[in-house]
Amino acid sequence: MRFTAILFFTLLAISNINCTAQSALTKQHAFNKRGIITGADQTEKYLPYLNGKRIGLVANQSSLIGKKNSVDSLLSLGVKIIKVFGPEHGFRGNASNGAVVGDEKDAKTGIPIISLYGKNQKPTAEQLADIDLMIFDIQDVGCRFYTNINTLEHVMQACAENNKELLILDRPNPNGYLLDGPVMTDDKFKSGIGIHHTPMAHGMTIGEFAQYLNGEGYLKQQCKITIIKIANYNHNMPYVLPIHPSPNLNTQQAVMLFPSLCMFEGTAINEGRGTYMPFTVLGAPALRGKYSFSYKPLSIPGMSETPNHKDSVCYGLDLRNYDVNNLRKSRQINLAWVIELYHAYPDKAHFFAEERASTGVSPFDLRIGTDQLRKQIIAGVPETEIRKSWEPGLQKFKAIRAKYLLYPD
């Protein structure tokens, strides 16, 4: 009997240890399964702070809490949203690139929507007068020429001028691993598609970029910001966006190729606008006979009404199945494609778009942030030498960027 009792209690103890271990494993599995958690999804960290406040929300279709738009979610949680401010492409994300977006009322909620890509890019004092707290919740993709960071600066400036706090619900940068390209240093290359002295791909989240804007003197006076950080995140983590951040970044492949392919917008090459596969294909009619792959850009409302080479068959590169892990491994923008297509293009004098009379600057140079790359490609400078010329600027920027990081590289 004594032996049986000892055996029983021994087995019970082992069972309890196993249960405890299993419980720990279950909790660890649940944690791993949750993975990255956006700032917006951590409602417990900011909902109490919103209680009783009149809220202005900078948002678009990428602003999600769970699977619902953050406006709809916050309203259902009793948050008093007074106004919504929409960036390029509008609040619901259905306006074409560069299209002027007007003010309106949201058909679903009746809340006034103020466009920050129309008659004013910065909220006015009148628009902010009845707001106690502004929230910024927009998905970015980590490129100087993606205009959400311009909107961020304008909103921060308006908040600073009108003594309004800005709450930032941070989101992962799907290209957070990438810090590459020439640094824009000359203000003559500033435009609506680039106003910051960063590389083409800056490797920061919106929250980090906000700290950079405050710290590097982009604002006349500092903006009071509070950042709800992303949980379980570092810059090297792959992140698949749950929704398209804009009409022409309609696949994860396009999001990952965007830093490399957007530069083609300043050339004779169509980068897939006017198709349902934008930023995953490259081509032009003049490349017929040099490439077998072809497609025809068309006018697509809400995406690209007047794409380059509209209604003409384009020949070139199909990158829909390109392994984007190559970019992640190299941690570089792909320069080989623009060099290849320049040399393949029969009329090299017209490969790069002409300088605009109003600015005296080429659209290609505006995206790159300098005229040096265009001149290097024309002169036949090898890619390795081109990249070496970027290094002094990149190293200087890396040191600046390090001061504002919220997450490890």
UniProtKB/TrEMBL annotation:
This is DUF1343 domain-containing protein. The lineage of its organism: Bacteria, Pseudomonadati, Bacteroidota, Sphingobacteriia, Sphingobacteriales. Transmembrane segments: none annotated. Gene3D superfamilies: 3.90.1150.140, Uncharacterised protein PF07075, DUF1343. Coiled coil: none annotated. Residues 1-20 form the signal peptide. Keywords: Signal. Residues 55-252 form the Peptidoglycan beta-N-acetylmuramidase NamZ N-terminal domain. It comes from the Bacteria. Residues 256-407 form the Peptidoglycan beta-N-acetylmuramidase NamZ C-terminal domain. It comes from Mucilaginibacter boryungensis. Pfam families: NamZ_C, NamZ_N.
